[in-house]
Amino acid sequence: MEVHEKLIAYLHAHKKEMLLLWKNLVETESGPQQPSGVEAVRRILEGELAAMGFTVRLQQISGAPDLLIAEAGKREGEGSIILSGHIDTVFPAGKASTHPFFVDDEGYAHGPGVLDMKGGLVVSLYAVKALNALSLVTHPIKFVFVTDEETLHMHSNAKAVLRREITGARAFLNFEPCAENNQVVLSRYGGGPVSIHVHGRAAHSGTSPEKGRSAILEAAHKILYLESQNDIPRGKLINCGAISGGIGENTIPGECTLRIGVRYRTETLAQEIKENLKEATVNQTVPDTSANLDLTHLIPAMDLKEGGKALFTKLQEAAALCSLGPIKGIQVGGLSDAGLAASLGIPTLCGMGVVGSGAHTDEEKALVSSLYERTELAAALLHLF
Q: Where are the transmembrane segments (predicted)?
């Protein structure tokens, strides 16, 4: 039998257990306020990976549940192929009770996180399971599952740990969902939350207003400057989305925090935005004020480089071998950890997971047939390395 025929036969024989694992993951809630749920999902994945013969370890991080790392075939001097995804979802506790996993008459699975991205976790696992069963794994494989991607690792050091775990990898495959069939993500915007904290001088607005230095007024000047630097057609966004400061109308505000969301199509634009933010922070319009800038939560853009292009060509070959039709590469605006991999020069593909729509909403759904097709595609790609 041809390799792709063997893959199809394996997946056909394991459809029910793939669907059951998907259901189990979705119904095990792992929202942003549910660390125990994240750990419960992680334990399910640990069991699957250990049963596959992988060496499994938990990598401690601060501020979030430990990362799940699993390796097999590790060889000195040879980079691993990374299969990555996130365990957490955006949904509040109890959502799986009101919106349980089910498959509708049109062949779509529903439930919180069914698309983003518990379906992709199943795809990554069974792609390797199929190759293992057929003795077709020829290169080191490393799973890296993170626990706080949906909050952009804002409260942990996961980004630094993730960079360390993936440095030197041969390729990075991220199993985030993709919106339409026969697509993968070749590039993504970068960005995330930044903040500027302005320090002024508080004073009584009635008895000594001349002694005050308004932090809110200074922040307003910064907002006007930053918003003037937007260039949406080029893919450059600086959104001053929230501001907080002061204690009341009768006090000149001594402190103010400006919360900003940024998006950039490329890392070149990222540098532009960072320079704009630094300029806004350093330059003061209101005398005797100062400011601090926090850029620590930014995710790099997933730029398409030569390594990514070559990896996409290999994916197209895999799709042809499996008779899955031509694969289209797209750019999307959402952030993902694929940007971290691309920033390290690792050939990267994202959107390798299931196909569907409605991510982060009660209408989230994923096409069940894509669970098997994308698993076949990922397995064929791994076999071509």
A: none
pLDDT for the residue 1:
55
The residues facing 261 across adjacent strands are 193, 239
Choice among 46, 48, 88, 376 that is catalytic: 88
Task: Give per-residue burial for 225-247: e unless 16+ CB within 10 Å, then b.
Answer: bbeebeeeeebbbbebeebebbe
How is the chain split into domains, by residue range?
3-189+302-384, 190-294
Q: What is the pLDDT of residue 325?
A: 84
Task: Confirm whether 3-189+302-384 and 190-294 share one CATH topology.
Answer: no
Residue 180 confidence (pLDDT): 76
Q: Note whether 195 and 340 are within 8 A (CB).
A: no
Phi first, then psi, for residue 222 (nearest 5°) are -65, -40
CB atoms within 10 A of CB 96: 20
- Give yes or no: 373 in active site: no
Flag residues of the chain having pLDDT under 70.
1
**How would CATH label the architecture of 3-189+302-384?**
3-Layer(aba) Sandwich (3.40)
End-to-end CA distance of the chain: 20
CA pair distance 221, 283, nearest whole angstrom: 10
Q: What is the rounded distance in angstroms from the CA atom of residue 348 to the CA atom of residue 242?
A: 34
| The pLDDT value given to residue 137 | 84
Task: Give the separation between CA 302 and CA 264, rounded to whole angstroms.
Answer: 10
Residue 14 DSSP one-character state: T
Q: Of residues 29, 116, 148, 149, which has the active-site annotation? A: 149
3-state secondary structure 249-305: CCEECCEEEEEEEEEECCHHHHHHHHHHHHHHHHCCCCCCCEEEEECCCCECCECCC
Cα–Cα distances in angstroms (integers) from residue 86 to residues 21, 75, 100, 127, in the given order: 16, 26, 20, 17
88 a catalytic residue: yes
> Could you tell me the two tokens for 83?
């299969």
* pTM for this model (two decimals): 0.92
The correct CATH number of 190-294 out of 3.40.50.300, 3.30.70.360, 1.20.1440.20, 3.40.430.10 is 3.30.70.360
